[in-house]
Amino acid sequence: AQQAQQKQQQATQQAAQQAQQKQQQATQQAAQQAQQKQQQAAQQAQQRAAQQVQQKQQQAAQQAQQQAQQRQQQAAQQAQQAQQQAQQRQQQAAQQAQQQAQQRQQQAAQQAQQRQQQAAQQAQQRAAQQAQQRQQQAKQRQQPPPNKEPQKEQ
Fold this sequence. Notes:
Elements: H1 2-142
């Protein structure tokens, strides 16, 4: 009876130990699986956050590059406009200078022509006056004055 009771106790203890071991293994497996799931979820969340940060950085970099390009283009356009305006001002100044020079040349030519005409008229008048005076003097020599002797030839 004692042997039977000991065997029964051993069998009971073994069964209890085996059940306890199985329960511990199941608990450990469940804990490991839960921990793995938590780690995976944490990694995924970290990756998503990193991707979002990277995307935001890329977008910010692209926007900054586009703005810099736009500013460069605007500056280039403004420089081109300034150059065109400077060219126009130079052309206008050159045209005005040329017109003024032409006007001065025309005025000088007109004044020279007037002086030539005046000189020619004066010379013609003097020549005509001298010829008239010589004619009058010749007539006076030819006609003796009344009540006087004829002039002796000098």
